[in-house]
Design a protein that fits this description.
By secondary structure, the protein is mainly beta. It has helices spanning 2-20, 25-28; strands at residues 29-39, 43-55, 60-73, 79-92, 97-109, 123-138, 144-152, 167-174. The protein has two helices and eight strands. The protein is elongated and about 55 Å long.
């Protein structure tokens, strides 16, 4: 239900820009694909985060995204697939540096060794708030490489999180 509210809120924001904005809507929309790599002594995590956003002003952007994570434990061979959605805000500080904030809702499965004897997959919901700086390196007129170092304000260490620590590095291509 929350996803529908976010989706329709973003839809009406884009519609408002289209009806009253000075630039064409197609000039304000952008897509980004971020990839992530994480892990530690117990697991390896690969993630993909496709996003679609809109330049609300020359400095402020907002949008929505989807999250997919592939998690593989190093000890006992266990594979887990996590998925979710996010909403984000970005504010350009200079031509290349920006501040970034994101709310994420992730449905994740705990590793089987933590699920008890039932053998039924234990899927949980996790909410995260990421904040941090980012750097944009233009590659052409309409594309750039984005690098962000994000801190999860709601991180709690333990088996109830798919993240191994509170820091997240994201690298992505924006078109």
């Amino acid at each position: 239900m929350t996803f529908l509210r976010v989706f329709f809120g973003f839809f009406f924001l884009v519609l408002e820009l289209f009806l009253h904005g000075q630039n064409r809507l197609s000039d304000r929309l952008f897509g980004t694909l971020y990839v992530g790599l994480g892990g530690g002594n117990e697991m390896i995590l690969l993630s993909g985060v496709p996003q679609i956003g809109c330049d609300v002003t020359d400095r402020y952007s907002a949008g929505v995204g989807m999250i997919y994570q592939y998690v593989r434990s190093i000890g006992p061979r266990e594979t887990i697939h996590n998925y979710g959605w996010s909403v984000f805000n970005r504010y350009k500080i200079t031509k290349r540096f920006f501040g970034y904030g994101e709310f994420e809702r992730l449905s994740f499965q705990r590793p089987p060794r933590f699920q008890g004897r039932s053998g039924v997959p234990d899927r949980r919901e996790l909410y995260s708030v990421f904040l941090g700086p980012g750097f944009a390196n233009p590659l052409s007129r309409n594309s750039s490489l984005k690098i962000m170092v994000l801190y999860n304000l709601l991180y709690v260490k333990g088996e109830t999180s798919p993240y191994s620590n509170s820091w997240l590095l994201r690298v992505g291509l924006e078109i």
